[in-house]
Amino acid sequence: MRQSLADDPGYVFDNDRAHNEEQHRCLTGAYDAMTFQRLAETGVTAGWHCLEIGCGGGSVAQWLAERVAPTGRVLATELNPRHVPARPGLVVEAHDVVTDPLPEAAFDLVVARLVLQHLPERLAVLGKLVRALKPGGRLQIEEFDTAYEPPLLTPDEESARLYETFLATKYAVMRAGGGDPQWGRRVPAAMRAAGLVDIDPRPRVELRTAGSPGLGLQLNHTYHLEDRLIAAGMTRPQLDRVRALMRDPSFCAVSSVIYSVQGRRPQADVAERPVRPRREGPR
Ligand SMILES: C[S@@+](CC[C@H](N)C(=O)[O-])C[C@H]1O[C@@H](n2cnc3c(N)ncnc32)[C@H](O)[C@@H]1O
């Protein structure tokens, strides 16, 4: 039986609403530079086969398609891929990464940014992504850890509390859908447990100020999740006030940490263990 919006399981930001374009614009502005720099570190180049799941507006898949051209290809998947512009070398597919199969041992590079933390089945999906890698292939996962993101400058104490209430309510909504807002910190260990090696986690924080894409994303969430935030206890006047606060040029807060984590599938699935030196001398 359906309970309330706040208890409704599943991805809380559906991808078929007017607010999605703004969400994709903010994600691109806030994170593409970091994501592209990390992807470049893998050496991705002409001829590689890449997969991005939950590709949203498609900016990461587009960047990859340019890098692997003319001989490589990129498969970009999404629940509803209508936002992704076509280009040579890029195949876009409607796909649910939880329930639909993926090709195995097929990709040199697999990317998932801000997808798994929303999915209750994130560990099973991680296993699927690992199996999609060719031996030696790289996985890059980027996720938030929202445990620490305090307001730093607000007009008054009440505004600071209101901002914290908005964030806490948003994460309650996410958890009710099976999401884990702190999954970012768990990604390195989960990747190792899934059989990857050379785990390389990089945390990043920034300031959220009026007009910045990071704060724009929070503002967008107040609209995108409006019904769910209200079902979870926020009032419309509170939402109006927190929106005004996030448009106030004097407002400043710390962002959550975003972890960019890379790992590599071993050449053979028998783990690449360090060889123990043989004991010399008499036994
Ligand atoms: C927060 S957005 C991130 C979009 C994009 N990866 C980015 O960082 O710009 C999460 C995306 O995951 C997609 N998504 C959620 N559940 C999914 C599923 N089960 N299978 C495929 N995509 C999914 C959503 O449609 C949405 O576009």
Task: Give, in spatial order, the strands making up the sheet with the most strands.
Answer: 3-2-1-4-5-10-7
User: What gap, in angstroms, lies between the N and C termini?
Assistant: 69 Å
Assembly type of the shown chains? Answer: single chain
What level of helicity do the residues show? 25-40%
**Global outline:** elongated
Cα-atom radius of gyration? 21 Å
Question: Would you identify the regions where 5 or more consecutive residues have pLDDT less than 50?
Answer: 1-8
Query: What is the arithmetic mean of pLDDT?
Result: 92
What fraction of the residues are assigned to beta strands by DSSP?
15-25%
Tell me the structural class: alpha/beta
The biggest sheet, with number of strands, parallel, antiparallel or mixed sense and barrel status, is: 7 strands, mixed
Per DSSP E runs of 2 or more residues, the count of β-strands stands at 10
Query: Number of helix segments?
Result: 8
Order of helices and strands: HEHEEEHEEHHEEHHHEE
Bound molecules: S-adenosylmethionine
Structure description:
The chain is an alpha/beta fold and 283 residues long. The protein has eight helices and ten strands. It has helices at 20-41, 59-68, 122-132, 157-176, 187-193, 213-224, 226-231, 236-247; strands spanning 49-53, 73-78, 90-94, 107-113, 133-145, 151-153, 197-204, 207-209, 252-254, 257-264. A seven-stranded mixed β-sheet has the order 3-2-1-4-5-10-7, sandwiched between helices. The chain has a three-stranded antiparallel β-sheet with strand order 6-9-8. The chain is elongated. S-adenosylmethionine (SAM) binds at residues 11, 13, 15, 24, 27, 53-57, 77-79, 96-98, 113-115, 118-119.
